[in-house]
Amino acid sequence: MVIDAFTQGKTRPGEDPISTLRFGVNYTPRRGWFHAWHDFDPAHAREDLDQIAALGLDHVRVFHLWPLLQPNRTFIRPAAVDQLARLVDLAGEAGLDVLVDGVQGHLSSFDFYPAWTRSWHHRNVFTDPEAVAAQAELMRTLGRALADRPHLIGLQLGNELNNLVEHNPVTPAEVDHYLDTLLAAAREHLPEGRLATHSAYDAAWYGDDHPFTPEASARKGDVTTVHPWVFSGDCARRYGPRSPQVLHLAEYGTELAKAYAEDPARPVWVQETGAPEPHIPAADAPDFARATVRNAAGCEGLWGVTWWCSHDVDRSLADYPELEYTLGLFDSRGRAKPIATALAETVAEVRAGLHPARPRDTALVLECTPSTRSVSGPGGAYFEAWTALRAEGARPAVVLAERADDAAYLAARGIKDVVRLP
């Protein structure tokens, strides 16, 4: 699929290529969180979106709830689809482009299953043929409904679907079939240049024998999405919130993802990163945001950065993990937090060309198997070696051991030297 000027920041010939980078936020409604879909209020949504646009961000990622969209396996609610289309239109009116996630089975520690997949109706959402076909039809329906929206970036299958594997056992081969089926359905009605993507949380990259694999993330869909969270592997607590391991985590996730791609030019999207308390204390959050964006922007092939999230979860809502109440750029009353100002200022710096991407001509070789994938995550030997080099001022790329002697591949990535762990 050719990624056109729309999906790369609407650049035109002669424009500074730095403007191709996209910066946005994952939209969490201020009033009622995602339960707001039960009684969608366009005025409230527009207020939230205007606040986001005022930060100078250019896109949002939005989420409807799967049980509300598809309450029966063979019934997709037109009213719910219309709500989603209305939100996309409101975002466009605010000057924001939109990525729409489709099958919302997991959001912020809660799982959302339609009743037809649970209890004595239980169907494995990854392997049951009729359940997979139903999800594919949902993606087709959303694509058909949104195809003519000029501000649509594309469709994503859903948010971190690999969170559902505990209750839906699946093999890597079955995951591949599931992703291929839904991505094909998502593309069916999308205009040329719009993206069809999928996402996974960090276990796909760091989890030994996790059924969602790095290869699936880096080779299926039109861009690779990464969600480098500082709580994965207890990273921030292990190394400290101001450590190089934390401040370069999104950069590292981007470079790791590039190593698994077959196409050296495949873009990587830092689609979720944020500053959850207490992992990142509130006083450190602005500097964390600045460092995260600046360091990620230094990676060649970066599609963009999308912060998690727009608005704090209101504490009147119960039973969220503590960190979920603190992740917003805006608090639950709609007031911009210091991290919002820091992010806006840093995005403006990057757009002004102050933190340009630069080639990486030296790569650190990653040797692992599906059963030893954790070496590349926080606490792992490879992760610690890469971040130690970065703290010393080096800018290493990542290359898989099986490609370390492939001269043509290394040349395509601009890699001149490879370094192996002792």
What does this entry look like structurally?
The protein is of the alpha/beta class. The chain has two domains: 342 residues, Glycosidases (TIM Barrel), CATH 3.20.20.80; 63 residues, no CATH class. 34% of the residues lie in helices and 12% in strands. The strands form three sheets. It has an eight-stranded parallel beta sheet. A three-stranded parallel beta sheet has the order 12-11-13. Helix 3 crosses helix 4 and helix 11 runs parallel beside helix 12. The longest helix has 18 residues. The radius of gyration is 20 Å and the shape is globular. It starts with 21 loop residues before the first strand and ends with a strand. The N terminus is likely disordered.
Radius of gyration from CA coordinates = 20 Å
Number of folding domains?
2
**Major sheet summary line:** 8 strands, parallel
* Low-pLDDT residue spans: 1-19
- For the termini, the CA-CA separation is 40 Å
Secondary-structure element sequence? EHEHHEEEHEHEHHEHHHEHEHEHEHE
> Structural class of the secondary elements?
alpha/beta
By DSSP, the count of extended strands is 13
CATH top level label of the largest domain: Alpha Beta
Helicity range of the residues? Answer: 25-40%
Which word captures the global form? globular
| CATH H-level homologous superfamily name of the largest domain | Glycosidases
Q: What is the average per-residue confidence, as pLDDT, rounded to a whole number?
A: 95
Treating each run of at least 4 consecutive H or I residues as one helix, how many helices? 14
**CATH third-level topology of the largest domain:** TIM Barrel
Give the name of the CATH architecture of the largest domain: Alpha-Beta Barrel
Strand order of the largest sheet: 7-6-3-2-1-10-9-8
Give the DSSP E fraction (strand runs of 2 or more residues).
Answer: 5-15%
